[in-house]
Amino acid sequence: MKHPKYILFATFDNFTKARDVVMELKVLDLREKIIDDIDLFSPIEHPDVEEMLGEIHQPIQRFTFFGAVTGALCSFLLVAAAAQSMFTVQPQGGKAVIPLPTDIVIAYEGTILFGVLCTLGAFLAYAGLPRRLSKHYNEKVSDDQIGIEVTTAKENIGAIKDVLNKFEPLEIREITQ
Amino acid sequence: MKDIEWSRINKDVLESLQSPRPLFWVVIAICVLVVLVGVGAEKYQYDNGLGVALMNRPHYWQLYISNFVFWIGMSHSGTLLSAILLLTKADWRKPIYRFAEAMTLFSILTAALFPIIHLGRIWDLYWVMPYPNERTIWPNFRSPLLWDAAAITTYATSSALFLYVGMIPDMAICRDNATGWRKPLYTALSLGWMGRAREWMAFRKTYVIVACFLVPLAVSVHSIVASDFAMSIVPDWHITSFPPYFVAGALYSGCAAIITLFVMLRYLFRFEAYMTEEIMEKIAKLTFAIALVWNFLNLGEYVSIWYSNDMFEKEVLIQKFIGPYAPVVWGMLICAMIAPFAMAFQKVRRSMWGMFWLSIVLQLGMWLERFQIVSPPLASNHEPWTWSVVWPGTIQLTITAASFAWFTMLFLLFCKVFPSISMYEVKEMAFHRRREGLHDEVENIHDIQEEIIKTERGLT
Question: Do the chains contact at B141 and A106, CB–CB below 8 Å?
Fold first, then answer.
């Protein structure tokens, strides 16, 4: 049987305090292995986020590269194929059926269009959007507070709350997942 | 900019969505009226044909194409400057980039109307799209007009997505504070953004990558618009330097438009604390620099025509300065070439209303520039028996006025529904400036401590 997980969501009034809390929670987890996940919510990107949570692997640029290459090829082939299909009815007057300069212009635009679209697709995938708001989401986070979400088992709530309370949070919310 | 508290930033910007000055509604009412008159003029042209717009050989391109080039040009600066200033980490872009990007989107939507209006047979619009030939339709891929369709579609899509992605964190702020009809709108547009670390990281990376794409895209779009002219054999259009000249002109008119809208928004939405004189001075300096580049390219064009010794090109150039269109050309030179030198003076650069009126003059100059590119060469072409002077008639002028009203209406409605200042970016700016300020203070304290220690050692 799967045990229910508990989420503690605490809000703080500055980045320094939030960083200290995360560092202390990590030390606690290193010692006792009781935290499943820590996440940070903030009104702007926390300047030390990678130092606190480690590097989050998001290879968005690979999708960009894939999109750009696909865009270039598809646009070139579209124009070349359309020109070929017209070959039998449109006199070319000695000109090339597939004119390179023209196709390169269209391929250039296609590269950018598909590159942008794939980048945005990757953004949505890695950011986990679109999604419903979490039950414990605190609207103050979009205003001027920093939220820390800790996922853990029921028996560890006390220890984690002690750490959170040590840094005088503005509010702590407790939710069963 | 003063150091503004985060919650105050939200409050100020969100209030602007609720209660603009009464003048806002007056402007909207006038715009709606002018747009309706323009729709009537278009309907009349649709029913009676392009002849009512006085377009005939050799004047098959006239004000509609001038307007198309003007609006495409205006669309340039918003996204391009936003992307360039983002990549160069110029933090003064933060309070202004949102409305500049919105300006891009609405200018390009306005520009896209003109080829359709210009067609006359608007029911055949789909002929421009490249698709296989089952219906024996022959799109000419060698024509820059078809490249235009591809470039503008790409630019409009990418600019709209760039604007939207940049707005997602602000949509979340609006969602958290909205009531009534706005709540579901912002909830849908915010996509469930909660400001999580992984959201911010993906957002930053995406934003920079898209900005990198937009810079070459914007340059290509106006270069292709320039190719519409440069790849023809009409004298005064067949000029190699047209693409960079058009790009510089587009940036120039776009910067002037940013100044106009900056002052307008500052007044209508009471953004005095965010849209400051310092930022205006920086935009003015940038505009002045671009004006000088444009001046250089414009003079370079005249010189290259003169020394090419091509009799047709020279004839058209001479006719421009002394012929029937001379008032337009001289008006352009005064408004776009001489007037920007007023920005050499700091007093002018820091005067909000001074810059507002100057930006209107610059835009008038750039609008005249587009007209003098399109019309005079057609009036004195290779074939003297086709020479004739035709000025745009009432229909063309009405539709032109309506396009300005259409743009202003869309832009102001956007600013009423969506935050025209990026709240999260202004918060970032305030945060980093505060942190740098504290850092400086700490360094000063260390200096003072060292001084005290040295003094004490000296005394002992």
Answer: yes
Put simply, the answer to whether A112 touches B216 (Cβ < 8 Å) is yes
Residue A29 belongs to domain spanning: 6-57+133-176
A1: in domain: no
- Nearest residue on chain B to A127, alpha-carbon basis: B199
Quote the ipTM score.
0.90
Is the pTM value of this prediction over 0.90? no
Give the pLDDT confidence score for residue B86 in this predicted structure: 84
The percentage of chain A sitting over the pLDDT mark of 90, rounded to a whole number, equals 22
- Let me know whether A81 and A168 are in one domain: no
**In whole numbers, what is the pLDDT of chain B averaged over residues?**
87
* CA distance, residue A8 to nearest chain B CA (Å): 15
Which band of pLDDT confidence, cut at 50, 70 and 90, is reported for residue B414? very high
- Choose among B139, B141, B203: nearest Cβ to A99: B141
User: Which of B 166-185 lie inside 8 A of A, CB atoms?
Assistant: 168-169, 172-173, 175-177
Domains of chain A: total: 2
User: Do A42 and A86 fall into the same domain?
Assistant: no
DSSP string, chain A: -PPPPEEEEEEES-HHHHHHHHHHHHHHHHHH--EEEEEEE-SS--TTHHHHH------HHHHHHHHHHHHHHHHHHHHHHHHHHHTTTS--TTS-SS-HHHHHHHHHHHHHHHHHHHHHHHHHHHHT-S-PPPTT--GGGGTT-EEEEEEE-GGGHHHHHHHHHHT--SEEEEEE-
CATH of the domain spanning B15-290+393-426: 1.20.1630
CATH number at A172 reads 3.30.70.120
Cβ atoms of residues B254 and B74 within 8 Å: yes
Do A73 and A113 belong together in one domain?
Answer: yes
Say whether A112 and B150 touch across the interface (CB within 8 A).
Answer: no
Give the domain ranges of chain B. Answer: 15-290+393-426
Q: Which of B154, B177, B428 sits opposite A44 (nearest CB)?
A: B428
- Nearest 5°: CA angle at B194, between B192 and B200? 110
Q: Is residue A66 located within the same domain as residue A117?
A: yes
Instruction: State yes or no: pLDDT of B323 exceeds 90.
Output: no
- Note whether B428 contacts A45, CB cutoff 8 Å: yes
